[in-house]
Each structure stands twice: as structure tokens, then as C-alpha cells.
Design goal:
The complex is a heterodimer. Chain A is mainly α. Chain A has a domain of about 210 residues. Chain A contains 13 helices and 2 strands; from the N terminus they run H-H-H-H-E-E-H-H-H-H-H-H-H-H-H. Chain A has a two-stranded antiparallel sheet with strand order 1-2. In chain A, a hairpin with a 7-residue loop joins strand 1 and strand 2. The longest helix of chain A has 29 residues. The relative contact order of chain A is 0.20. Chain B is built from 15 helices and 4 strands. In chain B, the strands form 2 sheets. A two-stranded antiparallel ribbon of chain B has the order 1-4. The longest helix of chain B has 27 residues. Classes of the chains: A mainly alpha, B mainly alpha. The interface between A and B is large, with 47 and 48 residues.
């Protein structure tokens, strides 16, 4: 360990982990309500980021497309993400009810490829680095911290903002589930589809609703990521890091997704504080190595329900 | 999948019952097919040769995936990474130990099989979706290992190495049409292997594990052992396919189409062809690869119409076409083309009484 780097990496890791946690929440939401693991979440996220960029950003040559303010653009993109979520649920996943797991997984994978193709037709395969962000990448907080490198911790303002938004979104999400009637209905559906149906809940509508909410979460997450890296086709692969986070926290646990996200963020960052270049380089695969270890030691994750299989 | 045979068609000897090729005209068909493949390079068209070669090694990879996913029911998102491992193993054996390609090929396949078994280890504890995540981890870890370990041998940050041309006595397989004969020969062997595995004790155990793992265990099928064997075989086939691909492309590397998307393509081909059938890999690979070429052609056609968007359009239709076809198949024909073919055969037999 290069101890001088550790404080910086811990803070960066937690901030990154917050964004991963928000992304993970979207996947857990859909899994909890309909037992579909959405591999296309990353691509819906990328679509949300690109839509926001289209409403608020500028082209490579500097010509502006619509030039709306960022929050308004995000709002419109989130609205579109709701529509996309509903459409996807109705057209692609509804016919798959009762199909084997492999078919459902492949359906979301096929969807992912389809969205990737559509995005690259609509917005081009060139990354658009000029994503409208409220702060420039060089805009940083410098917090004095004895013992760290140069005795200070450097925080990108964008990253702090993204963490704040992610935290706020998760909080709204939690309050919605805890205190609204719809939230209660969704929790009931997650518990047991048949029972939910028998007390008069419209289960297919709730599936649609959870896809819509997941769409909004994806769009917000996409914009947060794009503020950091620019809108590009790799945004969808960034999301793959959220999968280990989900399994670490437990597939069907919201708080687990948040804790898992932050742990994965920390692991990714701390690995980069190592003295050995080989270990530093391994930050790309560290989450997956962790994933394999979780799968072997504790497959249900930290907070997930342990399922006992009966004949 | 049920074997539909007309009334009165029964076997009279054990030999007949066990025959792989049941009818004289099956022989005719198979010899005709292989013969057509064998003279195809003389058409002189580079496109035909390249496509046939690509189909050949893809079919081998999917046959392996079929054993794992189709017969044993374990989802694998890492087949392309195992192909990469096979390609590297074969290339390294040929380059550094000076082995002939024809000895390196089976050795590379075995090596890849062992790698596959390692990533099959989580199947001891988890199944279904969780196992898919474990193979997803393989899809990221294996390419990373090839870039960051043994840099002197595996190309390091460049992420690719060039692979020597196979030589057999006086014959140098330096062009695709020559190499295609190796692919074809290996394809015939793996096809016989896949057929025989699927109808032997091993294959029946696989199917038992897929259909109901607890019941299979009660019948005395060692669950973990057979799942590991399925992983080993899937990776073995992927290793063969990867070695063939590496030596016909004469290069192997992480950025050369061994990514997650390829693994998804393999699974998609298997679904489109037909899960758990021996015909499925052939149909799926052929259809999807031809569709891929059609999408490339369509992309360049559209790019010609709208030159301003040419760069956007050229490659976009590949994922769109494949994603759309995969989704449509999952909704309307989830049992794949092989099942449809079976229905057509049954209808043909019942003519004129079929619906």
C-alpha cells in the first residue's frame, strides 16, 4: 500500500461508489418486482445520457442542437426514459412471462444490443466529450488532510455533485417506497405476485411502473456518469461494474445495493493505491474477482434473502 | 427433443439402434454436403471461403456452448473469452515450444478446458442467473490476464500477438482456402463428438441436470461432477474454435472480437438455431453470420443514401439486426429453427394429412 494515497482513494472510492449504488438500485428494483435481471440497464442509461446531451449539449463542431438548461434537459430525458421503460416492459418482457431464465436473460441482452445500435445511429459512434457539466474537470475542492499526498485531498466538484444527486435520488426512492401507496403496492408485488394479485393489485401495471422508475434512475445515473466522462458508447460497460455491487449487497435488497455499490467503489479505488503496478492495473477486474469470491463464499450476498430450495 | 419416427420404422438389431447415420440416403446427404464444402474453395470467391471458415469455427464454439447451456442448462456468458484462451494457448505452444499446429490444437483445447473448469467451480454453490454472473466475470478476467501477465509472451499492452501459419509436411496453410480444409476436418470430428456426447451416458446426465437437478441427484447423478464436465467440454470446444480462429486470422488479441458482445452473439445463435439440439449450432451460426453480412451490406447501402451519416450507419446495423432478430425469435420461435425443421419434417411425412 502507498499510504499517502489511501485517504484520497477512500474519498474518491466512496463518491464513485455512490454513483454505482444508484445504478445498482435501478437493476435491483426491476429484479425485486419482476425477477428479471436487466442486462440492458446500462444501455437505457446510455440512451438517457445521450438524450440529455442532445437537448442540452453542443455538437463536436460547437453548433448547438437545442441548448436547453441541463436540469430541464434531464427532465425531458427522464420523461422519455419513462416511455422507453414502459415500451420495453410491454413489448419485450411481457411476452416472456413464464419463460425460462435463459430466454429472459437473452431478451435483455438482445435489447441491450438493439439499443446500442439505435444510439449509435442516432447520435454517432464518436464520443461527445463536450457534455454540459456545471463544473469543468479542473474545478476541484482542496481539503487539507495531513498525511495524504501533498497534505490535501482533491475532490472534483462534478464528482461531489454527482454523489449528492445520487444520494438524493436514493433518498427519494426510499421515501417513495416507504410512505406512498404505490410504493407499498410495489413492495407487496415484490414479496409475492400471486398474493398481490389476490388482494386486487394490478401486477402487470406494477411491472410497467417499476420499469418506468428504473428508466428514470437510469437516465439520472447516465447523466451523472456523462458529466464525469462525457457521453460515449462505453457508458454501458461502466455499468457492468454495478453487477458485482448488486450481488455483493444481495440481489433483492435496496440497502444492499447501496452498501455494495460503495464497497465496490472503495475496492476499485483502493486497489489503485497499491505500490505494485500489477495490482494497480487490476482495478478493472477487481470487482469481478470480488464477484467470484462472493459467489463461492456467500452467493446470497450481504443482505439478500437466503433461498432454501425444496423439491 | 422427441425423435419423431413414422409408424413401422423400427430397428431390428442393436447395431441399427446405435447407428449414428441411420439411412443410406443420410450417407448420400452427408457426403454430398461435405463434398460441396470441399469444392467450395475452388469457386475462387474470397467471400465464400472466409464466410465458410468463419461458420466452421463458430459452429464448433456453439457446439460447446450447446453442451453447457443447451444440454446442461448452465448459462455461460464467457464463451468468447474461452475462445481467446484457446487461441493464445495454441499460438504460444506453436511459437515458444515449436510444436506443430496439429499437436498444439488438442493441447490448447485441453488447456482451455481446464481454464473453463476453474470458472465452472462456482457451479458448486450457485446456479442459474448467479452462474451467468460467474461466467461474466470470466469474460472480463481472461482478457485482462492476457494483457497484464507474461507480457513477453502474450503481447502485453498491445493486447495481441501474431500467430504463425500451420505447416503439415510440404503443405503450408497460408491462405484461408487452404486453412478451410483444416477447419472442415476438425468440424467433422467435433460434430461426431457432440452427437455422441449428447446420446451417451454423459449427455443423458447433462439433460437430467438441466431438467431437474434435485431429481437427477436422487438418481445418482453427481451434480457438481457433471456440471464441471459440462464446463470442461464447453471450454474444450471453445479452445478448439479459438485455436482455429487464431491460426486462420494469423493473429489473436483481446480487441479482435473476443468480447462480451461475441459471447452474447454465441448465445443468440444457439437460441436462434435451437437449444439442446445437434442441428441447432449449424443453423444458428449460418443464419446469424449471413444476417451479419446482410446487415453490413445494408449499412453500406444506407450510408450511400445518407453520406452525411455514413460513419454512424456503417456499423450500427449489426447490433440492431441481431438484437431485433434475437428478440423476435425469443417471442415467436423460442425453440429455434431446429424445432421448426422438425415440424416441417413431421408435416412432410404426414402429407397429405398434415395441417
Amino acid at each position: 500500500m502507498n499510504w499517502a494515497l489511501v485517504p484520497q482513494q477512500i474519498v474518491t472510492g466512496i463518491l464513485n461508489g455512490g454513483i454505482i449504488a444508484l445504478i445498482a438500485l435501478g437493476v435491483v428494483l426491476i429484479f425485486k418486482s419482476s425477477e428479471i435481471f436487466n442486462f440492458a440497464h446500462g444501455h437505457i442509461l446510455m440512451l438517457g445520457a445521450y438524450l440529455t446531451w442532445w437537448f442540452a449539449g453542443a455538437n463536436q463542431d460547437g453548433s448547438e442542437v437545442l441548448n436547453l438548461p441541463l436540469p430541464l434537459a434531464l427532465l425531458i430525458a427522464a420523461g422519455l426514459a419513462v416511455a422507453i421503460g414502459l415500451l420495453v416492459e410491454r413489448l419485450a418482457l411481457r411476452p416472456m412471462t413464464g419463460q425460462p431464465l435463459l430466454s429472459i436473460i437473452l431478451m435483455t441482452l438482445g435489447l441491450a444490443l438493439f439499443i446500442e445500435g439505435v444510439v449509435s445511429i442516432l447520435f454517432g459512434i464518436q464520443p461527445s466529450a463536450n457534455f454540459p457539466a456545471p463544473f469543468a474537470p479542473s474545478d476541484v475542492f482542496r481539503i487539507p488532510f495531513p498525511g495524504a499526498l501533498n497534505d490535501q485531498i482533491i475532490l472534483k466538484k462534478t464528482l461531489v455533485l454527482a454523489f449528492g444527486v445520487a444520494g438524493l435520488a436514493s433518498l427519494i426512492f426510499a421515501l417513495f417506497f416507504r410512505f406512498t401507496r404505490t410504493g407499498l403496492a410495489m413492495r407487496a408485488t415484490a414479496e409475492d405476485h400471486d398474493l398481490a394479485r389476490s388482494v386486487g393489485l394490478n401486477v402487470p401495471r406494477i411491472f410497467g411502473l417499476s420499469w418506468a422508475i428504473a428508466g428514470v434512475i437510469a437516465a439520472v445515473g447516465g447523466v451523472l456518469l456523462a458529466m464525469l466522462t462525457g457521453a460515449n458508447l462505453n457508458l454501458s460497460t461502466v455499468v457492468l461494474v454495478a453487477f458485482p455491487a448488486i450481488l455483493l449487497g444481495g440481489l433483492d435488497s435496496f440497502s444492499g445495493a447501496i452498501v455494495g455499490g460503495i464497497i465496490i467503489g472503495l475496492v476499485e479505488a483502493l486497489v489503485q493505491a497499491s505500490r505494485f503496478i500489477e495490482v494497480r492495473n487490476s482495478h478493472e477486474i477487481a470487482p469481478y474477482v470480488l464477484l467470484l469470491i462472493i459467489l463461492i463464499i456467500r452467493p446470497e450476498g450481504l443482505f439478500g434473502q437466503k433461498r432454501i430450495e425444496r423439491i | 427433443m422427441a425423435v419423431l419416427r413414422p409408424a413401422g420404422d423400427f430397428d431390428t438389431s442393436y447395431r441399427q439402434d446405435m447407428a449414428l447415420i441411420r439411412r443410406p440416403w443420410h450417407w448420400l446427404l452427408i457426403i454430398g454436403l461435405i463434398g460441396t464444402m470441399a469444392v467450395a474453395p475452388f469457386s475462387g470467391s474470397a467471400y465464400i471461403v472466409n464466410t465458410l471458415n468463419q461458420i466452421a469455427y463458430t459452429v464448433i464454439a456453439i457446439q460447446g456452448l450447446n453442451l453447457l447451456t443447451g444440454y446442461t442448462g448452465q448459462i455461460s456468458l464467457g464463451q468468447a473469452a474461452f475462445m481467446l484462451a484457446g487461441g493464445y494457448a495454441s499460438a504460444l505452444l506453436v511459437i515458444n515450444l515449436g510444436l506443430s499446429f496439429f499437436i498444439a490444437l488438442p493441447l490448447a483445447a485441453l488447456t482451455t478446458g481446464l481454464v473453463g473448469s476453474i470458472f465452472g467451480l462456482p457451479s458448486l454453490r450457485v446456479k442459474g442467473f448467479y452462474l451467468a454472473m460467474a461466467t461474466l466475470a470470466a469474460q472480463f478476467i481472461i482478457p485482462w490476464l492476457t494483457r497484464h501477465t507474461f507480457k513477453d509472451y502474450m503481447g502485453g499492452a498491445a493486447g495481441q500477438i501474431s500467430v504463425p501459419v500451420p505447416v503439415l509436411g510440404p503443405v503450408i496453410f497460408d491462405e484461408t482456402w487452404k486453412f478451410f480444409y483444416i477447419s472442415l476436418f476438425v468440424l467433422v470430428i467435433t460434430t461426431v463428438m457432440a452427437f455422441n456426447i449428447s446420446r451417451s451416458r454423459l449427455g443423458r446426465a447433462f439433460v437430467a441436470v438441466r431438467d431437474n437437478d434435485l431429481a437427477a441427484e436422487l438418481y445418482g447423478v453427481n451434480l457438481f461432477g457433471y456440471k464441471l464436465r459440462a464446463f470442461f467440454l464447453a471450454a474444450l470446444f471453445a479452445g478448439i474454435a479459438g485455436a482455429l480462429r487464431a491460426h486462420s486470422d494469423r493473429t489473436v488479441g483481446t480487441e479482435l472480437g473476443y468480447g462480451l458482445n461475441e459471447s452474447i452473439f454465441f448465445l443468440g445463435m444457439l437460441i436462434i438455431g435451437g437449444l439442446g439440439t445437434n442441428l441447432g449450432p449449424f443453423l444458428g451460426a449460418t443464419v446469424v453470420i449471413l444476417l451479419d453480412d446482410a446487415s453490413a451490406w445494408f449499412g453500406s447501402f444506407i450510408a450511400g443514401l445518407f453520406p452525411a451519416y455514413a460513419s454512424n450507419v456503417l456499423t450500427s446495423f449489426r447490433p440492431i439486426f441481431f438484437g431485433l432478430v434475437l428478440m423476435l425469435f425469443l417471442i415467436f420461435e423460442p425453440r429455434g429453427l431446429a424445432y421448426r425443421w422438425m415440424l416441417i419434417k413431421a408435416a412432410w411425412r404426414l402429407l397429405p394429412f398434415s395441417r
